[in-house]
Amino acid sequence: MADTSSKKSGGFGETLSVIVQAILLAFVIRTFLFQPFSIPSGSMRPTLLEGDYLFVTKWSYGFSRYSFPFSPNLFEGRIWDGQPERGDVVVFKFPPDPSIDYIKRVIGLPGDRVQMRGGVLFLNGEAVPREKTGEINNPDITQVNRPVDVYRETLPNGVSYDTLDLAPNTMGDDTREFVVPEGHYFMMGDNRDNSSDSRFNVGFVPHENLVGKANIIFFSIAGGSSPLEIWNWPSELRPLRLFSFVK
C-alpha cells in the first residue's frame, strides 16, 4: 500500500518552499531592482498625476538604509553610490520624517545657488530658459476647472519638462537664494504653485534619503479609483499613460 501521508507531507513542504522562495524573490526585486510607487499628490502635475503607478529603479543612485523595508540602521551613507542629475524625478524620504515618501524633480546639485524670481527659476545667478507652450484645460491634469498656463523649462544639462503656472505672484514665485550644501539636493515639483518642496518645509534632501529614480508608468487610473476596481476601467483608465517613461 502506498504511503499517502508522506505524499501529503511532501506536497505541503514543496508548496511552502515555493511560497518562501517567491517571498524572497519579491524582497530582492523590491530592495535592489524595482519598487512600485503610487503618486500621492498633485505636486508633480502635469508630469505625474494622482492615480499613476510607476516603477522606481533602486540601483540608480546606489543603496542606503532607506533602500530596505523599515529602513534598518545597518550602515551610513550609500553602497555603490550613484549621483542624480539635474532634472531626474526622484523618490526620496522626507527629511523631517523619513517614514514618508516624497517624489520631486532634482533642480539643485551640491554647491548650486537656487532662487525663484517672478516665477522664473535661477540657477547660479542665471535664468533657466522658460517658454510658454500653451494652456491645459483638463481638470484631470490641472485639478482646476479653467485653462492653466504651461511653461517648458530647460535646465543647463538640456533636460526639458513642463511646469504648471496656476496663478501669478504666489508664495513660491519669489524666494531667497538657497545654497545647496555638500551631499544634499534641492527638489521642486513641476506644479510650481501647489508643491511642498525644498522652497518650503522639505528643505535640502540628504543624499542618503534618495530611494530611487522614477522610471516608467505601468498603470494609471483617474477619479480616485483603485486599480483593483476593474469595473471603473472603461471610464477612468488613462490608456495613453500606460508604459510611458517618466521625463
Structural notes for this entry:
The strands form 3 sheets. Strands 1, 2, 3, 4, 12, 13, 14 and 15 form an 8-stranded antiparallel beta sheet that branches. 15% of the residues lie in helices and 31% in strands. The protein is built from 3 helices and 15 strands. It has a single domain (8-245), classed as Ribbon (Umud Fragment, subunit A). The chain crosses the membrane at residues 12-33. Pfam families: Peptidase_S26. This is Signal peptidase I.
Produce a short descriptive summary.
The chain has helices at 4-33, 139-142, 233-236, and strands at residues 34-38, 52-57, 89-93, 101-108, 113-117, 120-123, 126-127, 130-136, 148-154, 160-165, 178-179, 184-188, 205-206, 210-220, 244-245. It is of the alpha+beta class.
Helix-strand blueprint:
Layout: H1 4-33, E1 34-38, E2 52-57, E3 89-93, E4 101-108, E5 113-117, E6 120-123, E7 126-127, E8 130-136, H2 139-142, E9 148-154, E10 160-165, E11 178-179, E12 184-188, E13 205-206, E14 210-220, H3 233-236, E15 244-245
Antiparallel strand pairs: 1-2, 2-14, 3-4, 3-14, 4-12, 5-6, 5-11, 6-7, 8-9, 9-10, 12-13, 14-15
Keywords:
247 residues; alpha+beta; Umud Fragment, subunit A; 8-stranded antiparallel β-sheet; 4-stranded antiparallel β-sheet; 3 helices; 15 strands; globular
- Helix count equals 3
Radius of gyration, in angstroms, nearest whole number: 22 Å
As for the CATH topology, it is Umud Fragment, subunit A
Fraction of residues in β-strands: 25-35%
Largest sheet: 8 strands, antiparallel
CATH architecture: Ribbon
Q: So what's the CATH class?
A: Mainly Beta
Strand-pairing-aware structural class: alpha+beta
Shape: globular
**Residue windows where pLDDT falls under 50 for at least 5 positions:** 1-9
Q: Order of SSEs, N→C?
A: HEEEEEEEEHEEEEEEHE
- Proportion in helices: 10-25%
**Mean residue pLDDT:** 90
User: What is the strand tally?
Assistant: 15
CATH level-four homologous superfamily name: Umud Fragment, subunit A
Distance between the termini: 66 Å
Number of domains: 1
Transmembrane segments: 12-33
Subcellular location: Membrane
Catalytic activity: Cleavage of hydrophobic, N-terminal signal or leader sequences from secreted and periplasmic proteins
Main location: membrane
